[in-house]
Amino acid sequence: MLFPDRLGVVRVVCLVAVFDAVVPLDTGMLFPRESSSRELKELNGLWDFRADKSANRNQGFERSWYKSRLAESGPVIDMPVPASYNDITQDITLRDFIGWVWYEREVVVPARWVADKGTRVVLRVGSAHYYSVVWVNGEKVTEHEGGHLPFEAEIGSLIRKNPTMPCRITIAVNNTLTLETLPPGTIQHMNDRTKYPDGLFVQNTDFDFFNYAGLHRPVLLYTTPKVYVDDITVVTDFLDDTGVVRYDVSVRGAATAILKVTLMDNEGHSVSSSSESSGVLKVADVKLWWPYLMHESPGYLYSMEVQLMAADGKWTYEDVYTLPVGIRTVQVTSSQFLINNKPFYFHGVNKHEDSDIRGKGLDWPLIVKDFNLMKWLGANSFRTSHYPYAEEILQMCDRHGIVVIDECPGVGIKDIRSFGNASLSHHLVVMDELVRRDKNHPSVVMWSVANEPAAELPPAELYLKTLIKRTRSLDPTRPITYITASINYASDKGAPYVDVICVNSYFSWYQDSGHLEVIPIQLNTQFENWYGKYQKPIIQSEYGADAVSGLHRDPPVMFTEEYQNAVLQSYHDVFDQKRKQYVIGELIWNFADFMTKQGVTRVLGNKKGIFSRQRQPKAAAFLLRKRYLRLANETGRLPPWTKYPCSL
Ligand code: BDP
């Protein structure tokens, strides 16, 4: 009822057939960048907005709200983009709204874009949670499933139909989660009239963060020539002092084009070039991309400029696209994670895209503050728990040398019905979209295909195996993992297929609450069991304890800053024994407090942050900082003169 007809869901009889049936994406998704041939117009700011509060949430479609201005079919309010809509108003029904909301904005398109038929005009939505339908001047241009990845539509011919008309963009977004969405959820209709008001339905989910919704990332228009660089793939390597950049450029709009590919150092000097659409660029005296704290100049980036020239009978086309390129390698052995052939130890955080008022909306002050905090903390890495983060964040990681485990939105997959064909088909498409978007980021060193799926259920092993196999075929160069919960040892069913074991555990918290003394034994057992069975390197991908900022008690009691510190300290003692063997990383849960759905275990959200939601440190932040700087000194291979003083 809440969804219009879905496009593109291929239904086949068995999971293996699903693998073959999902057609790989055949267009690129390069991040929109200005160049001498490409212009860009951001559509951030205020949009008209209305939630469809009709009983079946379908009035907007029934009455075709997209056909005329939204304000003509009913009242609208101001809504900032990018932002989640949930915390913007005082309306409790909007905060907890389930169903379609409608955004609209009129745009003045530069006259040249309209006049020049040799120009493509592309509308791009950075992310909209969860399901979106887009119209331009009342005509549908695209729809997209999935809340954390970009989608586009070419709208040039549409806006040329009537050049005097302003370009009216309407986007309907539905946050409903079903058994087949990612993450999954269920809608429950509360039909007992002795208990619930007429028409009440609720969204049930099995994940621990608020289901924020809306236009979460920038919406923009950009241009390319009709013949254009559609995609670029780079894979890097090095031998002694020589860097190796294997690349592949795909061109659209013409059968042939003349290309010039130039790799430049960070001062703009050409270091290698080619005129082939795919090939190998060799870089003498290569400057490798190194992680933060592993090298005195981390995050070194070259620029790959791709110039294209093409002609048809009437026109000539020129396109220029510049891609940042970091040259580095990643490998996994039975006990180590190697970056540029050197052991890398993950000392980092798990994050959320989450903050006051904006919810999951992209916010530059927040992004820069978070990077400053991560660097202050001595964190060299983070995991994009539990969904892909904004590309703008990954670009910051590339430049600052922050290593990323890139996770898809496969979180809360607990119901056996979410392991069926339709779910798997969609999950495969999401991995496709994720790899296509993020494949060229040097900071991304591993894919995570799911968080704590109920891997013990009968269909789960084949589901995970298929997912991992597909991801490996999309990107054979990066290791793959999924995140397991150590409390549920049976959740290891996908472990034979991963490269790195990632384990979450909350000893002395969800089990044996208050008993700090269990941590050394249980954590040791956890590691020995996993390594004994699989002989693969292990990352402690989550651990931690809730602490309400400013709550103190000594001896430590749960929810105080002292207890959070004590949990961390006990975990660290075990990490220090095991990291000499096969433990290759530790990621605290969580970087900052974050909002969740309401429930008896959450007081205004999850408080396992080492920073508050407003990014102020708890005691644990100082404990962790001391540790991370020490770890950087011990494992980071910095030359002695750049060692970081732990006493800071
Ligand atoms: C883990 C989940 C994470 C939760 C965390 C917790 O992966 O999303 O927020 O537990 O309970 O199992 O704090």
Could you characterize what this model shows?
There is one protein chain. The protein is α+β, with helices and mostly antiparallel strands and 648 residues long. 21% of the residues lie in helices and 29% in strands. Helix 6 (364-377) links the parallel strand 25 and strand 26. The longest helix has 18 residues, at 421-438. Residues 1-13 have low confidence and may be disordered. It binds beta-D-glucopyranuronic acid. Beta-D-glucopyranuronic acid binds next to loops. Beta-D-glucopyranuronic acid (BDP) is lined by residues 208, 386, 451-452, 485, 504, 542, 589, 606, 608.
Blueprint (SSEs and pairs):
Blueprint: H1 15-21, E1 40-42, E2 45-51, H2 59-62, E3 77-81, H3 92-95, E4 100-107, H4 111-115, E5 119-125, E6 128-129, E7 131-136, E8 139-145, E9 151-154, H5 156-161, E10 167-174, E11 185-189, E12 201-205, E13 214-215, E14 219-225, E15 228-239, E16 242-252, E17 258-264, E18 270-274, E19 278-283, E20 302-311, E21 316-325, E22 330-332, E23 337-339, E24 342-343, E25 346-350, H6 364-377, E26 381-383, H7 391-400, E27 403-407, H8 421-438, E28 444-451, H9 460-474, E29 480-485, E30 501-504, H10 519-534, E31 538-542, H11 561-578, E32 583-588, H12 619-635
Parallel strand pairs: 25-26, 25-32, 26-27, 27-28, 28-29, 29-30, 30-31, 31-32
Antiparallel strand pairs: 1-14, 2-3, 2-4, 4-10, 5-9, 5-14, 6-13, 7-8, 7-10, 11-12, 15-16, 16-19, 17-18, 17-20, 20-21, 22-23, 23-24
Helix pairs in contact: 1-8, 8-9, 10-11, 11-12
Beta-D-glucopyranuronic acid binds next to loops.
